[in-house]
Design brief:
This protein is mainly alpha-helical and 291 residues long. It has twelve helices and no strands.
Length: 291
């Protein structure tokens, strides 16, 4: 808490005294926020602990900066952000925080969180807005299903199951989130192996349109095929975005090996035959295996 307080003091000082920080707005910060988020994602997939720590700080700076701007406009402040988040977490985890879900032998203390009207969000206080539940939640699947149902009941929550999927998400991640949210309300394959018939069906339809050289229909069918593959990945608990990024990095490393060799022997890539490049590609693969 002391460290967080020092950080907020520094942010206040920068906002008051630094020419660059003074002029920032929500609009001017937004592109940098996107960049910082991707840098964090890059550190996460590399599992670089030092970089993860550093990039988390950069993302935290942006979160607090937006709250600071709102505080100056007398809209909300960082405490409001934390309190709103804590209330949401308590409300959406009735299996942890509601009295009916608390194990008498291992009670979990309920944190005090002031409501917007100044009341406490503890269950013993009239201001508490937790959702009661008679069903004991014991699995991850039950938690996720409960989560979606509670969100739909919240007064400022999602108006529909899929409205919580941000429209600006990258398409691959959006497809995964759409499918995952639909699953949480029961719209899913009963047997995950059944998805392969759909994947093969979509691939066949794509190949048929490609043979016709119909670009518009081929594009639609390509989308359907990719959506079905993402669905298969989800059912087998694989993250398609992480998987594709791993392949991207693998391709880059292998191609860089080919390019480095071409520079070493003084032969430009465009002058190399495909057979020569394939041989180097296989060398790069073998080097990966030996590491």
């Amino acid at each position: 808490m002391q460290a967080f307080g020092r950080f907020l003091d520094v942010l206040d000082a920068l906002r008051a005294n630094c020419p660059w920080d003074k002029k920032q707005t929500n609009e001017s910060l937004r592109p940098n926020t996107i960049e910082e988020t991707y840098e964090l994602c890059d550190a996460l997939i590399k599992n670089d602990v030092h970089e993860i720590c550093k990039e988390l700080g950069d993302v935290l700076l942006h979160i607090c900066f937006y709250a600071k701007i709102a505080e100056e406009k007398e809209q909300f402040d960082m405490a409001d952000v934390c309190n709103a988040l804590t209330r949401k977490m308590i409300t959406r985890h009735p299996h942890v925080y509601h009295p009916s879900q608390i194990d008498a032998e291992n009670p979990k203390p309920l944190p005090y969180v002031p409501e917007d009207n100044g009341e406490s969000s503890n269950p013993g206080n009239p201001g508490y807005s937790g959702q009661s539940s008679s069903t004991k939640v014991t699995t991850v699947t039950q938690v996720l299903e409960n989560w979606e149902q509670i969100k739909l009941k919240e007064k400022d929550g999602n108006k529909s199951v899929l409205s919580g999927v941000p429209s600006a998400l990258p398409s691959l991640i959006k497809a995964y989130r759409i499918q995952d949210k639909a699953r949480n309300v029961g719209f899913d394959w009963e047997d995950k192996q059944d998805v392969w018939a759909k994947v093969h069906e979509e691939l066949g339809e794509l190949e048929a349109e490609l043979r016709k050289e119909d670009k518009e229909n081929s594009t639609r069918e390509l989308g359907d095929f990719l959506f079905s593959v993402i669905n298969a990945a989800r059912l087998y608990k694989l993250n398609p975005d992480n998987a594709l990024e791993m392949t991207n990095r693998k391709f880059i490393n292998r191609f860089n090996y080919i390019e480095a060799h071409s520079i070493k022997i003084g032969k430009p890539l465009k002058d190399m035959t495909l057979a020569e490049m394939d041989q180097l590609w296989n060398e790069a693969k073998e080097n990966e295996r030996l590491k």
